[in-house]
Amino acid sequence: GRQARPYVGRAAVTIGMGGVLGLLTLKWFGVSVMEAVGNTASANARLLLWRYALDDAAQSWLGVGPMHFSRVPRGDAAHPHNFYLQTAAELGWPAALALLAAVLYGLWCLLRRLRARREQEAQAWGPGLVAACIAIAVDAGLSGNLVMPLPQVWVAIAVGLACAWYKADTPSEVPARRRVSVGHLAVAAIMAVHLGVAWMEYRQPSPHLSASRWI
Fold first, then answer.
1. CB 51 within 8 A of CB 85
2. What span, in angstroms and rounded, lies between the C-alpha atoms of 125 and 162?
């Protein structure tokens, strides 16, 4: 209700800024929006990849093996852009159902905790962390972020922060918003490393994927 308004306001500003920066970035590189969402990123290609994953899952109740979705050439996709279906394809339906149950149970626990905790500091952290975990769970069904190195780290940080917030029993155990802690410094260091790696990739004369033998 009323307690959600500050978070909703901040989220709206953040989403708006992200959208504007995204469009400016595409314009800077001379790429149209349609080009940016084409090929493997398009909805049609995803449906095709999901069908491949279902075909693999149908071969064995234990799946075709870890990381074996990419054992055959499937365009430029080494994963089906759906973590749940990838789990079913590579580890089998029991593992996929167990994963889905764990995700739903974890989100349910976080939502219950969020409604129960009324302290100001807990409410300052909780909505953002819960929203991030929900976003991760939804995105896992539509993208390949969970099998890519950089977003894997961000997911681990978000889920780890959510677990720490969930386990904190008293407001004093939740760090004050403006206090710089070891955790803040660690996150800042990881961000600096990632930005450095991204800058080195940006300065490459041509994308490495262009040399792929499947393209």
1. no
2. 9
Mean pLDDT by 10 residues, the chain (215 residues): 81 93 85 63 75 91 86 80 93 92 94 84 84 95 89 93 84 56 80 80 64 49
How far is the C-alpha of 211 from the C-alpha of 205, rounded, in Å?
A: 12
Q: Which pLDDT score, from 0 to 100, does residue 123 have?
A: 78
Residue 117 amino acid letter: R
SS (H, E, C) 58-84: CCCCCCCCCCCHHHCCCCCCCCCCCHH
Cβ-defined contacts of 25-33 (< 8 Å, 24+): none
Whole-angstrom distance, CA of residue 64 vs CA of residue 90: 5
The 8-class DSSP code of residue 145 comes to: G
Q: What is d(CA 100, CA 39) in angstroms, rounded to the nearest whole number?
A: 28
Kindly report the CA angle at 92 between 103 and 51, in degrees rounded to 5?
90
What's the pTM? 0.70
